[in-house]
Amino acid sequence: MKKQLLALAIGSMVVAPSVAMADKGPTVYGKVNVSYENFDNGTDDAWRLQSNSSRIGVKGDLDLDVENLKAIYQAEFQIAVDDGDNSGQTFSQRNIFGGFQHKQLGTLKAGKFDTPFKVSQGKIDQFGDLEGDINKIVRGDVRANNIVQYTTPKLADAFSVNLALIPGEAAGTDRDGVADSISSSLVFDNGSIYASVGYDSEVSTTLNDLGGSTLVDAFHIAAKANIQNFELGALFQQSENSDSIGGLDYEDTTYIVSAAVKLDRWKLKAQYGMTDLDTSDDDLTLMAVGADYKVGKSSKVFGYYANVEADKGAKDDTTFGIGFEHNFSM
Q1: What is the pLDDT, as a whole number, of residue 140?
Q2: pLDDT at 15
Q3: Most CB contacts within 10 A, which of 40, 145, 201, 255?
Q4: Count of domains forming the chain
Q5: How far apart are alpha carbons 219 and 238 in whole angstroms?
Q6: How far apart are CA 6 and CA 23, in angstroms?
Q7: Number of CB atoms found within 10 A of residue 6's CB
Q8: Strand pairing report for 106-114 and 91-102
Q9: For the chain, what is the largest distance between any 2 Cα atoms, rounded to a whole number of angstroms?
Q10: Are the C-beta atoms of residues 305 and 290 closer than 8 Å to each other?
């Protein structure tokens, strides 16, 4: 009874109380990921407690008076388990949207959420949300505002297409159209093999040689194979600014490989990546190794080592950490 009351209370943040109590009601879910780490930037080092994108959310669907059509919703917020501070806030917004899902026609949703390009990386990243995360060297990890996305139903039980339109919402400029930015992906997933192609056009994000955000065109191919107890992943990506900046064109080319093996409760994993920065003629490299140990169906403890280094630049970040992760839903 207490669980149902809590679910309904959180669900009322995104739907009216009368709607929240319809059908099965919302699902409350979340993740607590905490690590105790030593971070060394080549000059100084310190121990710190990190909350690695810990989160809480509510999601669900509602049956409508149209056959095979239902309403969908999700509201997810990041929480800081270490110090309670998300850039001055208790909660910070992650993926929040509402929309419709039809069994034969697909899904339409609108709000603030991860672009199809970002999502289509799949699960090749063995150290997501940690200092070994591939986003330490590869850009395009965008959670876009004001985004509208259509996703086809699964075709031949394996293929899906995702197309998102992002208006610039800047009246009186050339960024006032219906789709100033476009993010898209084609995904194949049969459970054992995952493969995707992603493409972004004029999406606001960053490049490694640029300090701030700009409009970027990007393309990537990602793949992952689950073969018995083994996982093998790879990513190739090219990103460049859509328009010249001060007469300069910036381009990042990234290669990522990852692997893991499961041995009973253990999962041993590693990944390596390199990004070539065309403008500065520099290279960024990422290397990470680690191990997870399952202590329950939805819980694990882990340890890892990661290094992110620039060939010519000053960056030389090394991290050693131990931690735990609990996933929950009700």
Answers
A1: 86
A2: 44
A3: 201
A4: 1
A5: 5
A6: 16
A7: 12
A8: antiparallel
A9: 64
A10: yes
Q: Return the CATH number at 41.
A: 2.40.160.10
Distance of alpha carbon 298 from alpha carbon 189, whole angstroms:
23
How far apart CA 278 and CA 140 sit, in angstroms, is: 17
Q: In degrees rounded to 5, what are phi and psi of residue 17?
A: -55, -40
115 phi, psi to nearest 5 deg: -70, 160
What is the pLDDT, as a whole number, of residue 152? 97
Residue-level pLDDT at 302: 98
3-state SS assignment for residue 2: helix
DSSP state for residue 155 in the 8-state scheme: B
H or E stretch including 5? helix 2-11
Rounded-to-integer distance, Cα 246 and Cα 240, Å: 14
Distance of CA 268 to the CA centre of its chain: 22
How far is 195 from 197, CA to CA, in rounded Å? Answer: 7
- If you ran DSSP here, which 8-state letter would residue 154 be given? P
pLDDT average per 10 residues of sequence, the chain (330 residues): 47 43 77 98 93 97 94 97 89 97 96 98 96 94 96 95 95 89 97 97 93 92 97 97 88 97 97 94 96 97 97 90 97
CB 209 within 8 A of CB 225: no
pLDDT of residue 23: 53
CB-CB contact of 302 with 293 (8 Å):
yes
pLDDT of residue 254: 97
Q: What do you get for the CA distance between the two ends of the chain, in Å? A: 12
Three-state helix/strand/coil letters over 224-281:
EEEECCEEEEEEEEEEEECCCECCECCEEEEEEEEEEEEECCEEEEEEEEEEEECCCC
> What are the CA-CA distances from residue 221 to residues 119, 149, 213, 263 (Å)?
12, 20, 23, 29
Structure tokens, 210:
């640029």
The phi, psi pair for 134, rounded to 5°, reads: -65, -20
Domain that holds residue 219: 2-329
CA distances, 234 to each of 70, 159, 254, 274 (Å)? 36, 19, 11, 12
